[in-house]
Automatic annotation (TrEMBL):
The chain crosses the membrane at residues 244-264, 292-316, 322-343, 375-392, 398-417. This is Mechanosensitive ion channel MscS domain-containing protein. It comes from Caenispirillum salinarum AK4. Residues 159-168 have a biased composition (Polar residues). Its main location: membrane. The lineage of its organism: Bacteria, Pseudomonadati, Pseudomonadota, Alphaproteobacteria, Rhodospirillales. GO terms for molecular function: mechanosensitive monoatomic ion channel activity. Residues 1-28 form the signal peptide.
């Protein structure tokens, strides 16, 4: 076992050592690090260091055609430059072309173009012009990524090997893309091609396909009218790689567009911003004035800098892109304002009718308009974002590919936008299935109110006490809700009363009919109904039913009828039938005391709570007989009152006689 393990370790180490040696060998053959500026400018030896004679012995073989395009001669109509261009590698060819053109030596720069599509006698005249135009496009309209331009004779990319396959060698290329421009809404690639003149070394030049497209690209992306009229002294002075006159023109154009927007606003306020007689256009200019003025100003500014200024340089290209983004933003804003305005105008007639419970169609239409308006605004926003991204090639390529890839799209839906999208879809479900509508009278989790608003993600209920209950769509649809206006607004409201067992129910039922007949809110769809629905140990429950044309009217009607029935019970035999609690006193033996015969709490034959019959004396005592109870009768009380009066009169007379009697004579003993 140890020997086997050692053999396996040795094999692994040997394989790793062999792979490292192959990687070092490939790196040495590939030229190592990226060549510096000196190599890019020189390029005679090339980044790959391979002698030209060793590349391929047959110039026109199938294997050679993968490395270059064979040709007889290269631009025989051009004069031979004093200092030939170095075209051995793509980076050297591009750098020498740009240097020669920046020095205004367009005849020398034309040697980097394949003018084979021109007659030999026209190459000397057209070549410098095409070189100047191509230099303008590369210098002012595109940004060259020099790191992407290889400095190898074979044009192979370096540093792109896979870490898992270090032994793979770079693959030679025949074409190198330098930049890309749009021509008539189609992309045009500006390329370098490797060609092999007969009897000469392979060189890199701009192919005939690229050179032929230069006049059209220059006409579309070349200098504007103002730039062509400017003297050279103004176009040559630069500030942050941009001509100074373009900065001045940019400031002037921006100021002019601001003044134009102010002028448009003034004209509209004087002539168009007045109340209109048309119902659909009333208030339209007020709603769209700001985005419309912004859009017009930006479009004018965009047109000026595109036709007259023709921005150049990377900084002003950023300004151009920002302006385009603002144009898309202003257009999206204007579209949203138009959608909201016309949706509100379309829903205004139904808004006033939705307050009536007799018009469910108005509430249905208002709900559809409300949800549809928000969906339309959402679509406009998505369209604006997509339109803005479509103008930027990087965003359109990276953003759209990431957005619509299966994995990224599922991640976005599953994590980031799950709650939002579920509420939006629930809002659409509410608009389609209509469990509630704007203006419906509902009861949700004990809150009674009206549906006031249905937005993208929530429902707003205005309760009877002016509170606003905001409920997310998903939660709203997952809970039961009472919709009192769903099918018909008519409603029956119950009234519960509690009365004594002795209550004559027929009298109360008759009184209910009289009360309802006197109420104008009673719709007479249901006859007066009153029943005993429950009993307890102290009272019985009486339920009355009243109906009205809508829930709010039914609520007020049932409250008024309850008050009237309570007043009737209070006045009926001095409130005798109101609920009461009975207390029955008993003696030490548990017998009930103080029961009047025939009373509500008495038993004429038996004592409550026992089986013993009452005696005559107990019955007389219970009936209040004075003789049985020993209490004085009224005659006795009258006689006692007479006797007491006589005694009071005698005491008064005696007191009066004592006051009028003469004082007694004193005797001798008193002296």
């Amino acid at each position: 076992m140890p020997a086997t393990l050692l053999r396996r370790l040795a094999a692994v180490l040997l394989a790793a050592l062999l792979a490292a040696c192959l990687a070092v060998s490939a790196q040495a053959q590939g030229g190592g690090a990226v060549p510096g500026p000196a190599a890019a400018a020189d390029g005679a030896r090339g980044g790959d260091g391979t002698p030209p004679a060793e590349e391929d012995s047959d110039e026109r073989s199938s294997a050679a055609r993968k490395l270059w395009r064979p040709m007889d001669t290269l631009n025989p109509g051009l004069p031979e430059p004093e200092t030939p261009l170095t075209l051995a590698t793509p980076r050297a060819a591009l750098a020498n072309f740009m240097d020669a053109a920046e020095g205004r030596d367009y005849v020398r720069a034309a040697n980097a173009l394949d003018l084979g599509f021109l007659r030999e006698d026209r190459q000397a005249g057209r070549g410098p012009v095409l070189a100047r135009q191509l230099h303008y496009l590369l210098d002012r309209k595109v940004g060259i990524e020099w790191r992407d331009i290889p400095d190898r004779r074979d044009g192979a990319r370096t540093g792109t090997g896979n870490a898992n396959t270090p032994s793979s060698a770079p693959e030679p290329r025949r074409y190198i893309e330098v930049a890309e421009l749009m021509l008539d809404s189609r992309p045009v690639s500006l390329q370098l091609e490797r060609v092999k003149p007969s009897g000469a070394e392979p060189v890199w030049v701009f192919p005939a396909s690229t050179v032929e497209a230069v006049p059209g690209l220059y006409a579309e992306h070349g200098p504007g009218i103002l730039q062509r009229q400017m003297p050279r002294v103004l176009t040559d002075n630069m500030f942050i790689d941009v001509p100074v006159w373009e900065w001045a023109a940019l400031i002037v154009f921006a100021t002019a567009c601001i003044l134009l927007g102010w002028l448009v606003r003034t004209v509209l306020s004087q002539f168009w911003w007045r109340p209109s007689d048309a119902a659909w256009t009333e208030g339209l200019t007020r709603h769209i004035s700001t985005p419309l003025i912004l859009l017009v100003s930006l479009l004018v500014f965009k047109g000026l800098i595109g036709s007259l200024l023709s921005l150049t340089g990377p900084i002003l290209r950023v300004i151009d892109e920002v302006t385009l983004a603002l144009v898309v933003l202003a257009g999206t804003w204007l579209a949203i304002r138009l959608v909201v305005h016309f949706a509100d105008k379309f829903g205004t007639p139904f808004l006033s009718r939705s307050e009536s419970e007799d018009d469910p169609e108005a509430r249905r239409r208002l709900t559809q308009i409300s949800v549809g308006k928000r969906i339309a605004v959402f679509i406009v926003i998505i369209a604006g974002v997509g339109m803005g991204l479509s103008y930027y090639e990087g965003s359109a390529t990276v953003g759209l590919s990431f957005l619509f890839s299966a994995g990224a799209f599922s991640i976005i839906l599953g994590i980031a936008a799950q709650s939002v999208l579920s509420n939006i879809l629930s809002g659409i479900q509410i608009a389609v299935t209509e469990p509630v509508r704007i203006g419906d009278n509902v009861v949700f989790e004990g809150d009674w109110g009206w549906v006031e608003e249905i937005t993208y993600t929530y429902v707003t209920i205005r309760t009877w006490d002016k509170r606003r209950v905001v409920i997310p769509h998903t939660y709203f649809l997952s809970k039961p809700v009472e919709n009192w206006s769903k099918t018909a607004p008519q409603m029956i409201m119950p009234i519960y009363l509690y009365a004594d067992y002795r209550l004559p129910v027929d009298k109360l039922r008759k009184k209910l009919g009289e009360i309802l007949e006197s109420k104008k809110d009673w719709d007479r769809s249901s006859p007066p109904a009153l029943y005993v629905t429950n009993v307890s140990d102290e009272a019985m429950e009486v339920r009355a039913l009243v109906s009205a044309r809508d829930p709010l009217t039914a609520w007020y009607l049932h409250a008024e009828v309850r008050e009237d029935l309570m007043a009737y019970l209070q006045g009926l035999e001095n409130g005798r039938y109101l609920p009461r609690r009975r207390i029955q006193p008993t003696d030490a033996e548990g017998s009930v005391l103080g029961l009047a015969p025939g009373g509500p709490d008495s038993d004429p034959a038996r004592e409550a709570g026992s089986g013993r019959r009452l005696t005559e004396e107990e019955k007389a005592a219970a009936a209040g007989d004075p003789e049985a109870t020993g209490e004085p009768t009224p005659e006795d009380l009258e006689q006692e009152d007479g006797e007491a009066k006589q005694a009071e009169d005698g005491a008064a007379a005696k007191a009066a006689g004592a006051e009028t009697a003469p004082a007694p004579r004193k005797t001798g003993s008193d002296r």
